[in-house]
Amino acid sequence: MADTTLVATEIIRTIPAVMRLVAAELRKQQSQLVPAQLGVMGALAERSCNLSELAEFSGVSLPTMSGTVSHLVAQGLVKRTRAPHDRRMIMLELTPDGRAQLDHLGYHIIGHIATLLAPLSDTDLTTVQNGLVTLQKVFPPWESIKRD
Questions:
Q1: pTM for this structure?
Q2: Using an 8 Å Cβ cutoff, are 90 and 69 in contact?
């Protein structure tokens, strides 16, 4: 039986390496974005949401998310709009430029990771894929998180 503490330790050891790769690829692409901003854009690519939802999903405070969003708005990558169902609520969504930049960066980041995975055997790739599917049961992706 696998030791959950050892598995958790390996997850924690692996995530920073993946994020360093993402940060390096952002620099290589001469992007002004940092991985956290890219994550916000990725979340907004799935659906528009308000600042509170985005902060909760990202696990950061409202002031931190507000600063991140303001930076993305200033770059023309995210826009604020009034919610049609409640004009007091401000919704956030990607602009067409934001979506294009996200697609461009995603293409390069995914391509780099795919290149690193290419030497693995089909068995190892299947193992990695199955492991990630299992992890998503514990750490659900944005699109599976229910709205209130």
A1: 0.84
A2: no
Q: Whole-angstrom Cα distance, residue 141 to residue 133?
A: 10
- Is 55 buried (19+), middle (13-18) or exposed (0-12) by CB count in 10 A? buried
d(CA 22, CA 106): 10
- Helices assigned H by DSSP within 29-121: 35-46, 51-58, 62-74, 96-117
- Residue 84 is predicted with a pLDDT of 82
Q: How far apart are CA 58 and CA 145, in angstroms?
A: 12
Domain boundaries, the chain: 4-138
Residue in this structure with the two tokens 């980041």, named with its chain if needed:
109
Six-digit token pair at 79?
A: 């826009």
Instruction: Check if CATH label 1.10.10.10 holds for domain 4-138.
Output: yes
pLDDT < 70: residue spans in the chain: 1, 142-148
* CA dihedral sign, ordered 137, 78, 62, 66: positive
